[in-house]
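Kindly inspect this today.
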Amino acid sequence: MSCERHLSKIPIAERRGHTPTTRFGRTDLMLLALVSVWGVNFSVVKGAISGSDAPFSPIAFNAIRFSIAAVCLLALVRWIGEAAPASRGDRLPIFGLGLLGNSLYQVLFIVGIDFTSPANSSLILATVPVTVALIGAALRIEKLTALAWIGIVLSFAGIALVVLGNQAGAARIAQSGVASSQSASSLFGDALILLAAMVWALYTTLSAPLLRRYSATTVTSLSLAAGTIPLILIALPDLVRLNWSAIPIAGWSAAVFSGTLALAAGYAAWNRGVKHLGGARTAVYSNLVPVIAAGVAWIARGDALTVYHLIGAAIILSGINLTRIGRQTRSIPLPAEE
């Protein structure tokens, strides 16, 4: 979905002695490709789990794509020689973060997107930085200026418009009796995605102390691997019932695309962007994710886009940027899981 993690007063690039470049180069092109992958991923996930001909149940698809991502990321950590946490005092928090930010978050995300649209999901998840700012203010980690509070209010007002737009779209394309059911389902999905965004924001905040001692790649990989275990256990009944031989090439392609490109490669690419371009410049690219996600869903899936979506998206993105500008701390942006 979405694309900012972890509160810290010092950008990771600066803490490691890297000076962000100001020129548009290969790293920028890589980030443009990455946000395109993330935008497409919303429709890929939706197509793999929704509808009568969907090859996977939501829970089974999550377990498969996260297993793929965990293997890839752990192999990456081993290949680059990242040091694993040596103390039990660090391993347990990382495991807990995995349960929160990967197990719980992913159950909410995958079930939520099954009920609502890719456009709604991406726009709601884009507000994670706003929720992170609210949590930071509540915990007195940071102070919010008046500009930040204006951005927060705008962001949630934009969410309300987006939700309203989905209800209006469902009502227009369906008969009245069916529309009522579709609208209720969509509202349920939107609520789950909003709850997922809040869970991810909490994960973001709690990750900050570990990121001062270990690299983002290490923390991300180990917490994702830890969170994958419960996802597999929860999905066991669905995995046992799954007719593996009947899964089409398109279904496997969706799982591999989501697991390798959107998750594993996505984390590595985003971390490279933070390292070479700096946090603030890299975070700007995350604004493109909901725009691409909505466009792909409209073109490829025929999802309805109303004037509410367009206005709501503009308000949300404006609110996010105002919140970033008005925060009196410098955060480390990392990829939102999808």
